[in-house]
Amino acid sequence: MRDAPFDFARLHETEPAGTAIARVILAHGAGAPMTSPFLEQVAALLANRGIAVTRFEFAYMAARRTGGKRRPAPKAETLVPEYAAVVAAIGERDGAQAAPLLVGGKSMGGRVASLAAEELYRGGLIAGVYALGYPFHPPGMPEKLRTAHLEALSAPMLIVQGERDPFGSREEVEVLRLSPSVSLVWAPDGDHDLGPRGGKGFTRRGNLEAAADALAAFAGRLAESRT
């Protein structure tokens, strides 16, 4: 029995005005849908920088739209097959000549992408991976690290992190042993949504603009390396 065709209605596409230099899959965090204000703004900022954006929702989040019971997010590891299925569907749809594909997302979405990334990268399905606010550990539990797979990652990865993110502050993260393929960009005074406190000389909009700049530059470098 063949699998049912992939339902592309699950996806929310944001396209740049011209030819895309890359496409990123932007997955949501544990508690907010793909249409959250944060993801809406990030998608628009990336499209303005020549990046095509594909958003989707994991099944547990999509179920909430149809009156499903609000349940906690499943363990990140259990969501990897769902993410891989989206990558496969987009790859089949767009073909071998498509713009380079990057996987990533906000918080949990970025973590799931990073768990899937090594196999996808070695298989030639993606060019790299990124995370916006990576959940290095649960808030208040710095000893419970979620970084074992990042120590040996060969896929290029960009993490944009708030300097005072309770899931991993700059002080905590800079002493971690991560793979050389992982690069970090810091949002000044940023929280888990990259937002700064008032009176610190920074703005949420400015931090999101800088995050989009960093991700677009990262995608551009990966695209150039494949030509």
Descriptive labels:
alpha/beta, single chain, 227 residues, 7-stranded mixed sheet, globular, 6 helices
Walk across the major sheet and give the strand order.
Answer: 1-3-2-4-5-6-7
Low-pLDDT residue spans: none
Order of helices and strands: EEHEHHEHEEHEH
How much is the average pLDDT? 94
Quaternary organisation of the protein chains? single chain
Approximately how much beta-strand content do the residues carry? 15-25%
- Which of globular, elongated, flat, extended, rod-shaped describes the shape? globular
Helix content: 25-40%
Q: How far from one another are the termini?
A: 39 Å
Brief overview:
With 227 residues, the protein is an alpha/beta fold. It contains six helices and seven strands.
What features would you describe in this structure?
Helices cover 31% and strands 17% of the residues. It has 227 residues and is α/β, with parallel strands linked by helices. A 7-stranded mixed sheet has the order 1-3-2-4-5-6-7, sandwiched between helices. The protein is globular and about 45 Å long. The model has no long low-confidence stretch (mean pLDDT 94).
How are the SSEs placed, and which strands pair?
Layout: E1 12-14, E2 22-27, H1 37-47, E3 51-56, H2 59-62, H3 80-94, E4 101-106, H4 108-122, E5 128-132, E6 157-162, H5 170-173, E7 182-187, H6 204-225
Parallel strand pairs: 2-3, 2-4, 4-5, 5-6, 6-7
Antiparallel strand pairs: 1-3
Helix pairs in contact: 1-6, 3-4
